[in-house]
Amino acid sequence: MSSEGTATGSRVTLHVVSSLDGFIARKDNSVSWLDGNGSAYEAGVSISDEEIAAFVKSVDCYVLGSRTYEHALELGWPYGDTPTVVVTKRKLPSKRKSVEFYSGDLKTLVDEKLTPRYRNIWLVGGAMLSQRFLELGLVDEIRLTIAPVLLGDGLRLFGGSLMEERWVLKNVVAYKNGFVELSYSASNV
Ligand SMILES: NC(=O)c1ccc[n+]([C@@H]2O[C@H](COP(=O)([O-])OP(=O)(O)OC[C@H]3O[C@@H](n4cnc5c(N)ncnc54)[C@H](OP(=O)(O)O)[C@@H]3O)[C@@H](O)[C@H]2O)c1
């Protein structure tokens, strides 16, 4: 897929939050570094609860690797009742009605299961699943949020064996809390 999504207009957006030094998780999985308090950037924008709610409503489907799923259950499920596909080869306990499990070819997942049903598809990690999607050319947009912190160690976002590939910067938003959101489209858009 990639480029302009599919004929039906579906798009796969990879969204992750990274530290300044490229980690998406601490070794012990703790997430306090995602807390934006304490780094005020006056020129930045802030978003209202209404804007957050409208944004969340615009997502039609989330896609997660199994480790991200397990961590999300521990932390308090952030994906509401939005349909969510968890990629795993294991038989995991189903804790929520909105979740379905998938094991198999990822291109088949996108082409035959996701894009016929959903337009705004959000791949939300973790590193392993994101890298596989990128290697297979299944991502149309990367939305990378940089947190104002060096972690020094942890799980690398792009630690795998990705090929050199140019992406096109589409938008930059700096927030009052010091986080910066970078949006890129696949270069052949
Ligand atoms: N900062 C952020 O924005 C962000 C976002 C998401 C996650 N995270 C963090 O990242 C960590 C998890 O990331 P991770 O890279 O370790 O794991 P992950 O990508 O969430 O999950 C990896 C698992 O997904 C399944 N999987 C991946 N590719 C597959 C394929 N091609 N076919 C079938 N199954 C496949 C496998 O599950 P099975 O082993 O079950 O078969 C694999 O073990 C957590 O700490 C989480 O909190 C951070």
What is this entry, summarized?
The protein is α/β, with parallel strands linked by helices.
Structure description:
The structure is a single chain. By secondary structure, the chain is of the alpha/beta class. The chain contains four helices and ten strands. It has helices at residues 49-58, 66-75, 106-114, 127-135, and strands at 11-18, 23-25, 61-65, 84-87, 99-102, 120-123, 141-146, 155-156, 167-174, 180-186. The strands form two sheets. Strands 5-4-3-6-1-7-10-9 form an eight-stranded mixed sheet. It has a two-stranded antiparallel ribbon with strand order 2-8. The protein is globular, with a radius of gyration of 16 Å. The model has no long low-confidence stretch (mean pLDDT 92). The site of NADP nicotinamide-adenine-dinucleotide phosphate (NAP) has 24 residues, from strand 1, strand 2, helix 2 and helix 4.
Please provide the count of β strands: 10
Spans of at least 5 consecutive residues with low confidence: none
General form = globular
Q: How are strands sequenced across the largest beta sheet?
A: 5-4-3-6-1-7-10-9
What does the average pLDDT come to? 92
Using only CA atoms, what is the Rg? 16 Å
The secondary structure category is alpha/beta
Spell out the helices and strands N to C. EEHEHEEHEHEEEE
Helices, by number, come to: 4
Q: Which hetero ligands occur in this complex? A: NADP nicotinamide-adenine-dinucleotide phosphate
First-last Cα distance: 11 Å
* Beta-strand content estimate: 25-35%
Largest beta sheet, briefly? 8 strands, mixed
Report helical residue fraction: 10-25%
